[in-house]
Amino acid sequence: MWASQDATVPRTDAESGPTNLGEPLGRNRRPGVALGQALQGGRSGSNGLEPPRLISRSIEGSKVYSSAVGFETTPTRLWKRLSPEERLAAALSFWREPPSEVIGTALGLIVKARHMRPQAVRALAPEARARALALVLDPGDALASALLVALHMGERRPLLGVFLDAVGLRHEDGILKDEPPEVAPLGEESARAGVKALLAAFPRPQVETYLNTLWLQDPERWAVLQRQDLP
Questions:
Q1: What phi and psi values does residue 48 have, to the nearest 5 degrees?
Q2: C-beta neighbour count of 3 within 10 angstroms
Q3: Which has the closest alpha carbon to 152: 57, 32, 69?
Q4: 152 and 115 in contact (C-beta within 8 Å)?
Q5: Cα dist. 33→15, 72, 108, 118, 120 in Å?
Q6: Dihedral of CA 14/16/18/23: which sign?
Q7: Which of the four pLDDT bands, split at 50, 70 and 90, describes residue 17?
Q8: Residue 141 has what pLDDT?
Q9: From CA 137, how far away is CA 39, in angstroms rounded?
Q10: Domains of the chain: which residue ranges?
Q11: H and E: helices and strands count for the chain
Q12: What is the model's pTM?
């Protein structure tokens, strides 16, 4: 479903795993979708939840709205909308605990962008890898989704707890708990409470990025967040 990357990087066993996934980053992933969840469950599965599935659904041509700006309909578009500082923060968080499914893609992009040998890229410090990755504006939807999750699982994790508390979903440090296999879509009243709580505590641009990321991971569950008349 997602375009693969041009650069090929030989992988170690620890880096194996698909870089091209065909499923949405959705309910089974469990992080606050997984943003309200890890942003549903942690990246490594250490929370007793499934490891995140690092793909979100793209909906081309849809007119969807958060409270102030239109939702971007793919992870790559939302990634491009971030400031350089936000992209660096996301990349730094990503390399602290990189999901195995997209390590190869991330390394390949740095190889291509920096014209370096794969072995040299692997030898870079995480901070150097992050600076290089943050400059890539078109990482592909799988990696862009992972980077957006990393941003919110890192320095923006407090948004997850505030939102989940306000909408009445049980969680542990932003990770949803005890969720059934099938969950009902978020209701309008809960959504209004969640958005209001976020806007009272965080800058609007951060709130909009979080809600957009949440919606991308599961458009059905978080469909109400598209409402133009939310606070």
A1: 80, 10
A2: 11
A3: 32
A4: no
A5: 25, 17, 28, 34, 36
A6: negative
A7: very low
A8: 98
A9: 23
A10: 66-226
A11: 9, 2
A12: 0.73
